[in-house]
TrEMBL record, chain A:
The gene is ftsI. Its main location: membrane. This is Cell division protein FtsI, Peptidoglycan synthetase. One of its GO terms (cellular component) is plasma membrane. It is a single-pass membrane protein. CDD domains: PASTA_Pbp2x-like_1 (cd06576), PASTA_Pbp2x-like_2 (cd06575).
UniProtKB/TrEMBL annotation, chain B:
This is Probable peptidoglycan glycosyltransferase FtsW. Peptidoglycan polymerase that is essential for cell division. It is a multi-pass membrane protein. Keywords: Cell cycle, Cell division, Cell shape, Glycosyltransferase, Membrane, Peptidoglycan synthesis, Transferase, Transmembrane, Transmembrane helix. One of its GO terms (molecular function) is peptidoglycan glycosyltransferase activity. The gene is ftsW. One of its GO terms (cellular component) is plasma membrane. PROSITE patterns: FTSW_RODA_SPOVE. The chain crosses the membrane at residues 12-32, 44-65, 77-99, 140-162, 168-185, 192-213, 286-307, 319-346, 352-373. Coiled coil: none annotated. Its EC number is 2.4.99.28. It catalyses: [GlcNAc-(1->4)-Mur2Ac(oyl-L-Ala-gamma-D-Glu-L-Lys-D-Ala-D-Ala)](n)-di-trans,octa-cis-undecaprenyl diphosphate + beta-D-GlcNAc-(1->4)-Mur2Ac(oyl-L-Ala-gamma-D-Glu-L-Lys-D-Ala-D-Ala)-di-trans,octa-cis-undecaprenyl diphosphate = [GlcNAc-(1->4)-Mur2Ac(oyl-L-Ala-gamma-D-Glu-L-Lys-D-Ala-D-Ala)](n+1)-di-trans,octa-cis-undecaprenyl diphosphate + di-trans,octa-cis-undecaprenyl diphosphate + H(+). The lineage of its organism: Bacteria, Bacillati, Bacillota, Bacilli, Lactobacillales. One of its GO terms (biological process) is peptidoglycan biosynthetic process.
Amino acid sequence: MNNHPKRTSSSKTRKNRKIFGQWLFFIVMALFALLIVRFAYIGIFKDVKNVNLKSRAEQLYTQKRTITAKRGTIYDSSGQAIAEDTSTYSIYAVVDHSQKSASGKPLYVTNKQKTATVLAKYLSISKAKALKTLTPSKSNTYQVEFGTAGANISVATKQAIQKEHLTGINFVSSPAREYPNETFASQIIGIAQAQTSKKTGKTSLVGQMGIELAFNKQLTGTNGVRKVKQDTSGYQIADSTQTPKKAKNGDNIYTTFDNKLQTLLESQMSSAESGSKATSMNAIVMNAKTGAIVAATQRPTFNADTKVGLSKVWRNTLIEDTYEPGSTMKVFTIAAAINSSNFNPNAYYNSGTYQIGGGKVTDWNPTGWGAITYRQGFERSSNVAMAHLENIMGGTTWKKYLKKFGFLSSTNSGLANEASGSSPFKGALEQANTAFGQGITVTAMQMMQGFTAIANNGKMLKPYFIDKIVDPNTNKVVTKNHKKVVGTPITKKTSKLVRKYMQDVVYGKNGTGSKYKISGYRIAGKTGTAQIGSSSGYESGSSSYVYSFVGMAPAKNPKYIMYITLKKPQNTTKSAEEYMAVVFKSVMKQALDQAKAANQKQIGVVTMPNLVGENITAAQQALTKKSLQVTVIGNQTKVTAQSIAAKKKVMNNNRIFLTTGGTTTMPDMTDWSQAQVNQFVKLTGLKLSSSGSGFVNKQSIKSGSKISAGQAITVKYHQK
Amino acid sequence: MLMKKFRYLDYYLVIPYLLLCLIGIVMVYSASADIASQNGGSPTAYLIKQTIYVVMGLIVVWFMMSINIKILQNPRFLILFAAVQFGALLFVKLFGQAVNGAQGWINLGVINIQPTEVCKVFLILYLARMLSQHENKISTDFFSSVGGPLFLSFLFVLLILIQPDLGGAAINGAIIMIMILASGISWKKGVVAIFSIIFGFILVLLPLLSRIAQSGAIKSYQLQRIIAFVNPFGTAQGAGSQLVNSYYALSNGGVFGVGLGNSIQKMGYLPEPNTDFIMAVIGEELGLLCVVLIMCLLAIIVARTIWLGVRANDAYSALVCYGVATFITIQTLFNIGGVTGLLPITGVTFPFISYGGSSMLVLCAALGCVLNISVRQASGRELAVL
């Protein structure tokens, strides 16, 4: 270093440099100190500009995640779901070409042709239309949707589309309620629909009518909250030690509806409705021994799954509509008369007309049948006989009985807007009119309740359709309904006599209910034809009546009571009775047959075993042993899913679907119920179109052929 | 020769440097593993690259330390360097690859070169040579003696400024300023100038810029950063998000840190957790104590460098030392100032620790020069003693 010509610094510049360097040293060190102090300030005090950094950061990381509670399932009496939770999806396609993943993979639709073909295969949209949707006119469109064709997509369809590995196709899920039986006591079960809360922005299912509405709180359960720490992409950060507040799933409701009877009743009512063109119809079938309603429906009704017909009538006419019942009321008139010792079946009176209270009571045959006994009068459905009986009893006694039979007050079914009916009950004529069911309004449910006293040896039972409510989290029974005696308006002796006279109606020479005979069973019944009151008096014409029938069987010791009403039939080529008789006879017979069979061989309830992961052959054997029917979906050897969860109770002979994955072959669906077909279709992703009702007798895909999701199938149902 | 140089190796410089590089490797890995794997890459991708850069840096240090310092003073070398540097700055302005808004990069395949970074070393070497050559005339005839070189230097800074790279321009500008003030002019003027610059910046420039930015009269990316600096919490969802998340990281870490690898803020909340905001991640994971340690290690390097400059008898050595010290100090100031909200965020990396090849190699080159000077001083003293 000594060899190069050394540039000599003047001592002055060197001194300047050195002193400047020293200053630089102190300034730089001061800067470092300043930075350290600033760092320390933030790290120690965790506060900048009066913002508490610690709590702010906590807020940033901690996300309250709602754990959505599952809405309770509504079951029929055999443990098959009537209403249950599911998800539906709506599809959307990203068309913005700038959407790429971090690793550069496209997140938009790359192959429009293929995408359109796939969508056309699974959704009700043509390829051309799908292609058009995928090619929006605006160049800066981010995503496109497919209207109604792209909404309400089932899980199976969604999975089938996902298997095609299309880029840019995404799904949004929303909670939905599934009603596999479609039309099944729709107004009583009600519906729940997805609603978005304005407060929380969360979408959840809310009951809109029927049991879904009345028991909305129990069905809904309580959402849980989980606080999680997470990074910006939503991944949970490992050491979050928050204890979650568990979601409490909604209670399950087990109804008393008998799947077979209800399905039969629905299809019979539908054909009666379309035949008679009645403006409305009601039908209730009840277990006479317990008050449990085993089937009930109304017309018009709606398909709870598709919501078709929902706009026509939201009301549950069985409990919300009041009407003048007409002659079926006479059952209670003679019951009251007998019970108050005012009935002499063999005493004579003059039929035809009866002057009372400044007015006139007329028989449906105004010329009458001359002097006949009261027993005959009941058989012929004579109004005059009833007016006399009411007169003999006296208004006070009759009113007392009306109340004892539960009229003029609600049955407290638990459903919303239940009516209690009314009667002015003023003046001798009006009071006499109530004895044959005019001048008093009732609900169909009140009539049913009253009839239980007749059928059940004087003991009146509260009608109920909810067997029990079970908390699925603890398997505890929250509510259990039993047979409940709500009064004893008449004696056993009276009830037996009334049933005896009611058999005259069906089997007597002049009985008005001869159409309602069922071979093999003895029926006690009463017909009714009520005028319909309006503001301008009673309407006239043969289509202006409420026709009704009540039947109990077996007459000696009734197991079932069935009550049907049919209002204003517009098609009068066949009489209203004929339509009602078909409904009554088929359903009542089925009910009685079932009861008989059950007596012979007690229908067993078995507990569903856990089969997931089991060998399919072993699983099939296990279920067959339990007298369950098995349908396998897929051709693999291990069970991956079972249609009814383990530990659930199942009635034997129910059909269980076991999924194994792989290719599926079409089963023989003969005699499957609509619910079973729907369940199968949902599990396999087939596109179903069906006709008729009841049970399968024809299927478009031959059993044994291979099926794949998206394939169309047509199924025909018939009544067995 | 080499062995002899190693004998005089300046441990005050080398040990802190090596420690910082090691901490850097560990923390780049910790800060980047999650981001890298989220982006679909290997979690060790940045670790491997940073290790390579550190090794390359060691070679550069060794090289710069070993060469005869006269080569760096050679006019032909400096003219070539100036030409290449000018060309590079022009190239990035015209064809540069945009990374995070600034077009600062030239892709050389293996490594992305940032001409702005290289310019710092160029200016130190160039000005040290020019100013030392004319040191005796500077106080009397400033412009005619060093006017040309200063013009060229500020032209380079202008090119950097229009890239646009405000932080880079500021650092390069600061290097030029300090080197002029240290060139031998009256130290009183120099000190007054430094304080004028500091206070002028704090009391005039920053408030003025804040006022302009908040008035909304001019909208630009740079002004957004000023708004974010003035009101980070008000703009936490937008421009202020970087600073706010940096605050959260420091607050999470506290004195002792949440532990190596446990940073939450690096999981996507903090942008650039392995480069510009690595000190926030270190603050979060290793706590204030480790941050102080790192700052002290860096302060030792800077202090030692200035001290070597003060002790140097020749103007060239002193100016190189002051230049390098300024380089490291301003870089640290801008980085930590941004991370702690003392200064607007300028996108400057933290010396020796942040991930990045250009910045590492350039710092190593600068450190190598200082080591070279240190060895010369040490051996010179020894010779003198002998």
